[in-house]
Amino acid sequence: MKLLEEKIRQEGQVIGTDILKVDMFLNHQIDVNLLDEMGKEFYRLFKDKGINKILTVESSGIAIAVMAAKYFNVPVVFAKKSSHKNVGNELYSAHSHSFTHGKDYEMIVSKKYLSPDDNILFIDDFLAGGNAAFSVLDILKQSGANLVGIGIAIEKGFQDGGKKIREMGIELQSLAIVEEMDEVEGINFRNAEC
Amino acid sequence: MKLLEEKIRQEGQVIGTDILKVDMFLNHQIDVNLLDEMGKEFYRLFKDKGINKILTVESSGIAIAVMAAKYFNVPVVFAKKSSHKNVGNELYSAHSHSFTHGKDYEMIVSKKYLSPDDNILFIDDFLAGGNAAFSVLDILKQSGANLVGIGIAIEKGFQDGGKKIREMGIELQSLAIVEEMDEVEGINFRNAEC
Prior knowledge:
homodimer, 194 residues, eight-stranded mixed beta sheet, two-stranded antiparallel ribbon, 6 helices, 31% helix
């Protein structure tokens, strides 16, 4: 998505060859017009798939998921992050790890909001090693809900989460895929639109 | 706001006389059409106030803030919750306490995203004792940003946060104010629209 790639180039901050900060328009301050275009693009990509619910993970996935959900006219469910290991039996849960925050957590979703009748689009802001995505897959498996596809704002193509997910046969659409990046050289996108 | 009051009556779950769970449409699963109407209503209430930024707190304030921001055509900034006390000097921070999660946290906002030029609408999902709101006021004071008003989805009118804020002369608009509630008797709203 050209608009997002341009925004990342203009305002994203590359630290070393691995960290991309998009605090100024996505993860702390949010550009709602860009967000709206991203929601529209996810709708264009997945509109014919019979999606009846969008799943995301707190916190930074929520804004994107909600904006997309408006186009799909479906509810959003956001998975919560808990530091408690004992989450009770009314919840689906999966162990996960945040590299950003450097800690383990339990990803949890109430059993009330996922069922075998659901056709789920999972939306998140970042995909790198795929830790959060694999926890979501685990939770969806527990619930019996059907995963229709995954929509990611920014994929770090130089980490292997995206590759693993595509090899599983899951439809993964990332609006911008960073192929490589460097503080000096800048960012190369995979299949950049010109 | 009649639509929200009806939704709370129909789907909200009252536990005892103090806990109101709205997990099914606001705090875990999100009804995006209701959210859109709430955003529109906040715009109606505050549209002439020169607001240039909406501030909220992760996680459950984000969805409402983003939907409102679309109408105002302004960016959202969401305050983050950190368990670290030492947050560095690039951040505004305020000590706060979550009664829902039973723990203390530091509310933090990057200094890059709040300045004396900003006219801020603070939006959140719940107001009860006002703990989060007072931490936001603290952060806004540190930044020099001007608070134009506060928009709350659901105010617990039987707790004193709302009273304290109104007594400070701040414009506080809550879309639904629960005057009293009870598992058996149900919910009474203040100034309910008929």
